[in-house]
Amino acid sequence: MKRACRNGVSKVESKSAPLFKNRKRVRHPKAVLRGVIVFAVVWSCAGALIRAQEQAEEQGTYRVAGIVVNDADGTPLGRTRVSLAEVQDRRRAETLITGADGRFEFRNVPAGKYSLEGARRNFLLTTYQWHEGFSTAIVTGAGLGTEKLELRMIPFGSIAGKIIDEAGEPVRHAAVKLYMRNRQFGRDRVVKIGRASCRERG
Hints:
The chain is mainly beta. It has one helix spanning 29-58; strands at residues 2-6, 9-13, 61-70, 81-86, 93-97, 103-110, 112-119, 126-127, 138-140, 149-153, 175-184, 187-197. Among the domains are: 61-153, Sandwich (Immunoglobulin-like), CATH 2.60.40.1120; 159-202, no CATH class.
């Protein structure tokens, strides 16, 4: 309350307290609804932006996938190391281990020509569609099927026998060598692949 005096006349000015000073402000339901709508629009735009970025990153890349099997009986081979390397530069390679079902998958592979190779204990180091020293390259690109490949691993075998002399008696401690005819680049070669020694009974 203030008291003022002008021309001998006394005036009293008073300021009353607001009636609803302690009353909390309540947001209108429509304002809340507008906030929810704005949030949903922003979230949707952010998701679309992320998807666009992922598509941009994957644009021009492909998938190389398939299964590794035993060439002898066709059973899937788990725990097999599979490598995918560029034909022109084999130092640029990716490697993975197959699961129990023998399946493998390489993602985001650029367009190009690649060598697919499998390695496993008791199996020959095998490339895709290996035959007589040749293999087939994996070519990635638009419209090319590289997602249902079958890498057939060649298992090692065993050769057993007995060495005897002219009289039919076993030859003791004889040295035995194993050779294989190998055809590479259209030419036949005979190469030694192993050796062993006989026991006392030949």
